[in-house]
Automatic annotation (TrEMBL):
This is Penicillin-binding protein. InterPro entries: Beta-lactam/transpept-like, Glyco_trans_51, Glycosyltr_51/Transpeptidase, Lysozyme-like_dom_sf, PBP_transglycosylase, PCN-bd_Tpept. Residues 362-632 form the Penicillin-binding protein transpeptidase domain. It holds the Pfam family Transpeptidase. GO terms for biological process: cell wall organization; peptidoglycan biosynthetic process; proteolysis; regulation of cell shape. GO terms for cellular component: outer membrane-bounded periplasmic space. GO terms for molecular function: penicillin binding; peptidoglycan glycosyltransferase activity; serine-type D-Ala-D-Ala carboxypeptidase activity. It comes from Streptomyces agglomeratus.
């Protein structure tokens, strides 16, 4: 209990202490000159406030967080992202009515006092002493600005925000010292400008420009008197005086501001009365924040840009540094997204696969030689509603993609062929390639030999019987041919070639060294596959994918960005040979439905066991693209007797559904672009026995490759734990799954 005098009142010292304490807690402290002596009154008691002179003299004012605009390659906006929706403007771009309104209601003597308003302190202290609590504050506009700087510096850290806004004497003393500094260094006009840009106006709007756009869909320089008064009134309590949710309360507060403006003679009483009689007329612009607002289906591309920014050391050494730059915002990020290519991808997807279909598709286009990702889209839009997702089916898990990727089927076979050719195997090489066979054993890996435990592999149908040479085997996607090839060269050259092509599993795990790798048993992303095939188009030189062309700060400073790095993955002759082989796939093989008629093109189909996944990956000399079709959820869906995009399919093949998607996407993306030709090599035709030749005649729909994906989820629904199916290593370790996958089981 406070010690009282015999008459029942507090001592003189106690009264002074209460006076100063209440005044401070109400939003002000005495003039800076008096503060050092405050320690005698208990203001500098341990745990309350550090000594006034010990407070650092320089207020560090972080750049105000602003909205970041993500642009396409032609500098047109894709999306706007921000942690705080703010656009900084100069005082000349703020309505004079707004400037007068905020001063009138928040600090009418702003131009007459220094860092604190002593008259206001005394008035507030007197009223608070009478009420026995804190009923009135006396913070100047400068002090409010300093407090907002503390809040801005705290960012989204709730603990730091609480510390920046807590009602303690220590904070108020620090606030005052910095207010004195700000008054000396900035001057009144700059303080007012900074205050109007930093303060919160509700409805996710920070700063007067964003507030004006949010409530009235106009710039701050165009605010009318009644509009300016409304916004000035919001500042004291953005939730209580929110005109969107409580127009009546907001009107009362607006009218108080208008009357205050008249009282201090910023406007005439007649002007104030006319404005009071004007009903609130809002023209609200809803916040448009994040990749969910991206145009032309570029939400996933936008999200990938964010992932790059938050993960690449070029934007900061640590995760925290990168996040700070991103959240600070105010950036102009020009990307590699080509609007023509992106529009073509989205149009093709819409024509072939519906958002409501049981299965989904994802498409990615990459420019050979530069690594620029030109387009990225999928049939399930970016969002949180039914039939929407935030999982990027085109990306690896660590960049926002599915947990496991998607088994690629026979689209992996060109990597095996490239490894073999690099090892000296000629394109005329023949293997017996029977309809079915045990996996050869042993097969050399990078470590110990792989030993077959009794697994077998088979081709798509019983009519597929060798001997075959490489060209025909690639066109028909003959499983046993490529298993025999990998038996001869070993598995290590294949995994090494895959590494040079940037082919990694979507879950980040190392490729398994088993013969069935040739059948595409491992989960990959469309981006990985498109970029790997771009290496063939680039005559054997691999370039890492890039999404960002340039980044500029709000002040126009250019930041460094990730660059594509290119390296030779194979000889030009090997790449030319693969190009020749894959031209045959679209000319007369399983990919005929994907073939472009107006320019050189090549590619490969792929369909996995159970028809759970179907692929087409192809390219021209100046554009590569990958298309995946399959289940979008954790539950696998056999694509048999199924309707996709309104079209019924008894069986889905890589050339039948993904192929036409690829064809339409590429055609639109390349419309009006140059049509260079491939450097091809002559590969002599293989003459088979006439009877065998007759037996092999006739068109096939497609290959089913034996990519073993049983039960494998499509979009990573099991990120939180282990895989919901028997691990693929279990299938590899013995019995039927010993080869790491088995042959196709289609017709």
């Amino acid at each position: 209990m406070p010690k009282k005098r015999s008459g029942g009142g507090l001592t003189g010292t106690q009264q002074a202490a209460k006076f100063i304490g209440v005044a401070a807690l109400s939003g002000a402290v005495l003039a800076g000159i008096a503060l050092p002596a405050a320690g005698a009154l208990g203001l500098a008691a341990k745990g309350t406030v550090e000594g006034f002179d010990e407070i650092p003299a320089n207020l560090k004012t972080p750049p105000l967080s602003q909205r970041t605009t993500i642009l396409d390659a032609q500098s047109r906006p894709i999306a706007t992202v921000y942690s705080r929706d703010r656009t900084v403007v100069g005082l000349k771009d703020i309505s004079p009515y707004m400037q007068k309104a905020i001063v009138a209601i928040e600090d009418a003597r702003f131009y007459d006092h220094g860092a604190i308003d002593l008259k206001g302190v005394l008035r507030a202290a007197n009223r608070n002493a009478q009420s026995g609590g804190v009923s009135q504050g006396a913070s100047t506009l400068t002090q409010q600005y300093v407090k907002n700087v503390f809040v801005e510096e705290a960012g989204d850290d709730p603990t730091k925000v609480a510390q920046a806004t807590q009602q303690t004497l220590g904070r108020k003393v620090r606030e005052l010292k910095y207010a004195i500094q700000v008054e000396e260094e900035l001057g009144k006009k700059k303080i007012l400008e900074n205050y109007l840009n930093i303060t919160f106006f509700g409805q996710q709007a920070y700063g007067i420009e964003s507030a004006s756009k949010r409530y009235f869909s106009k710039s701050a320089k165009d605010l009318k008197l009644e509009e300016a008064a409304l916004l000035a009134g919001i500042v004291q309590s953005p939730s209580r005086y929110d005109p969107v949710n409580d127009a009546e309360e907001a009107t009362k507060r607006r009218n108080i501001v208008l009357q205050r403006m008249a009282d201090v003679r910023d406007v005439s009483q007649a002007e104030a009365d006319r404005a009071k009689a004007t009903p609130i007329k809002l023209n609200v612009s809803r916040p448009k924040n994040g990749c969910i607002t991206a145009v032309t289906g570029a939400g996933f591309f936008c999200d990938y840009v964010r992932e790059v920014f938050l993960s690449d050391p070029v934007f900061g050494k640590t995760k925290e540094e990168r996040a700070k730059v991103w959240n600070q915002g105010g950036l102009k990020i020009r990307t590699t997204l080509d609007p023509q290519a992106q529009g073509s991808v989205q149009a093709s997807i819409k024509d072939h696969v519906y958002q409501s279909d049981k299965i989904a598709t994802a498409v990615t286009l990459v420019e050979p030689g530069t690594g620029k990702v030109l387009a990225m889209g999928q049939s399930r839009p970016y969002g949180f509603k039914s039939d929407e997702t935030t999982i990027n089916f085109s990306a690896n898990k660590n960049m926002g993609g599915s947990a496991y990727g998607f088994p690629t089927g026979s689209t992996f076979k060109p990597f095996v062929a490239a490894a073999a050719i690099e090892q000296g195997i000629p394109a005329t090489k023949t293997y017996s390639a029977p309809y079915d066979m045990p996996y050869p054993s042993p097969v050399q890996t990078c470590d110990k030999p792989w030993i077959n435990q009794g697994d077998t592999v088979e081709n798509e149908n019983e009519q597929e019987v060798g001997p075959y040479a490489m060209k025909e085997a690639m066109a028909k996607s003959v499983n046993t041919y490529f298993v025999q090839m990998i038996s001869e060269i070993g598995i290590c050259p294949v995994t090494q070639m895959a590494g040079k092509l940037g082919v990694i599993q979507a879950d980040g795990q190392k490729l398994k060294e088993v013969p069935a790798i040739s059948l595409g048993t491992e989960g990959m992303s469309p981006l990985t596959m498109a970029n790997a095939y771009a290496t063939f188009a680039n005559r054997g030189t691999y370039c890492t994918p890039v999404f960002i062309e340039s980044v500029r700060t709000a002040l126009g400073k250019k930041l460094p960005v990730p660059k594509s790095t290119c390296s030779r993955a194979m000889s030009e002759k090997t790449a030319d040979t693969i190009n020749t082989l894959l031209k045959g796939v679209v000319d007369s093989g399983t990919g005929q439905q994907a073939g472009l008629t107006s320019r050189d093109n090549a590619g490969k189909t792929g369909t996995t066991d159970g028809r759970h996944n179907a692929w087409f990956v192809g390219y021209t000399p100046n554009l590569a693209g990958a298309v995946w079709v399959g289940a979008a959820g954790a539950k696998q869906i056999p694509m048999v007797d199924i309707t996709i995009g309104g079209v019924y399919h008894d069986k889905v093949f890589g050339g039948q559904v993904p192929g036409p998607i690829w064809k339409d996407a590429m055609s639109g993306a390349l419309d009006g672009k140059p049509a260079p030709g491939f450097n091809t090599v002559h590969i002599p035709e293989h003459n088979k026995d006439k009877d065998k030749g007759d037996r092999d005649k006739g068109d096939r729909d497609e290959d089913e490759d034996g990519g073993h994906d049983d039960g494998k989820p499509g979009d990573g629904g099991n990120d939180g734990g282990g895989s919901p199916w028997p691990d693929l290593s279990d299938l590899i370790s013995g019995g039927r799954g010993n080869g790491g996958g088995r042959g196709g089981n289609g017709p």
